[in-house]
Amino acid sequence: MTSTIESGPLPEIDSAKARRAYELDRKHVFHSWSAQDLLDPMVISAAEGSHVWDGDGNKYLDFSSQLVNTNIGHQHPAVVSAIAAQATKLCTIAPSYANDARSEAARLIAERTPGELDKVFFTNGGADANEHAVRMARLHTGRHKVLSAYRSYHGGTQLAVNLTGDPRRWSSDNGSTGTVHFFPPYLYRSAFHATTPEEESQRALAHLEQLISLEGPSTIAALILESIPGTAGIYVPPPGYFEGVRELCTRFGIVLIADEVMSGFGRTGKWFAVEHFNVVPDLLTFAKGVNSGYVPLGGVAISPEIAATFGQRAYPGGLTYSGHPLATAAAVATINAMEDERVVQHAATLGETVIRPALRGFAERHRSVGEVRGVGVFWAIELVRNRETREPLAPYGGSSPEMNKLVAACKSRGLLPFANFNRIHVVPPCNTSVADAKAGLAILDEVLEIADGFVA
Ligand code: PLP
Hints:
Layout: H1 15-28, E1 44-48, E2 51-54, E3 59-62, H2 65-68, H3 77-89, H4 100-112, E4 119-123, H5 126-141, E5 145-149, H6 158-163, E6 179-182, H7 197-215, E7 220-226, H8 241-252, E8 255-259, E9 283-286, E10 298-302, H9 304-309, H10 325-340, H11 343-365, E11 369-375, E12 378-383, H12 401-412, E13 415-416, E14 418-420, E15 423-426, H13 434-452
Parallel strand pairs: 3-13, 5-6, 5-7, 7-8, 8-9
Antiparallel strand pairs: 1-2, 2-3, 4-10, 9-10, 11-12, 12-15, 14-15
Helix pairs in contact: 3-10, 4-10, 7-8, 11-13, 12-13
Pyridoxal-5'-phosphate (PLP) is lined by residues 67, 125-127, 130, 153-155, 226, 230-231, 259, 261-262, 287, 298.
């Protein structure tokens, strides 16, 4: 029997309106990261919790959280009404004024970030959060270079895309100086010929230390690292790695920037992924889950030392919408709802009791599965053509007819997956119910049977 998503109470869908949305999209909308003429975007007409409905009224379980941002699901009523209430009261105000929504959001974030990262600079999203973090680090240290990992993503603006360590950088890798990439740990395809997590950790740290000394520690302002790299493949660092990076940064006076844009706000079963490693970065960048993406918002949480650099000296940077009331009111409501509904704890339990055992089972039963890895509601299934050679089911930086078939098979069963190169990520909202998680995993189980047919 084929698993599909039960159709629940149907929201009102006007399919004529949806068709017009599609036609206008094709005529006028220029999409991100895409060859425009090859696109066939699904119209989403309604959404609630972990589900969305297309323009024909078909219901899908959203195992992607869109771009891994709807951490409390779609249309959470507390957040929707907080945005509406804020809109009625005060839609916008310049960043130079104090405002209750912004002040309260900053307090709630500062209380949850580790250590004393108690000052928050708000941005419009993740890329500009990283841009500002690097600018702060450069001005704080008087140094220029930034170290960043391969297999990472830090955003689409010019500097942030240069920092990025995945193929989205390649065509824009010009004009910005000073980014040096290093190999992060990735035991399954170890760059260090390691065979255990401990070996991978030690060797990746030795490589990083050598790279720092060859580049010249006195030239390096910052090291930016996703606490658990996300889109690039969900690589939970092996024991001691993040702590070792912290030690190297401290020893050489390098500002450690933890990019928590995707891994933050409950995704890994903690408020921030750095908590898994007991590390306090000097700067922590966030976006996405801070308000589930209901209104664009990002930011940088700043250490007292770096904040002090700009105590008597102006910070040369700003945005018209820094701490926008609608976005920060949404953040306040989101964080409060996550506390009230114990969403972070739920993500941790769902990961340990439902997703981890299911994915372990996939790895045992399906010969197309090379590796599964993750924590909380942040998991990757790495697909291969051959378990011995580990040849990926799609090349690095590309797709393949086989991966396209798997994505289509998920959608035809009512599951929206998150696929990247040869991986399917299991990244549903943090508050997905056990029943929905199991339903989505049952669909993936079937789709992996199709993937097994591609194994040589
Ligand atoms: N950093 C990480 C780890 C991300 O995953 C992303 C987006 O996916 C970004 C930065 C960029 O965020 P934004 O798209 O909001 O600019």
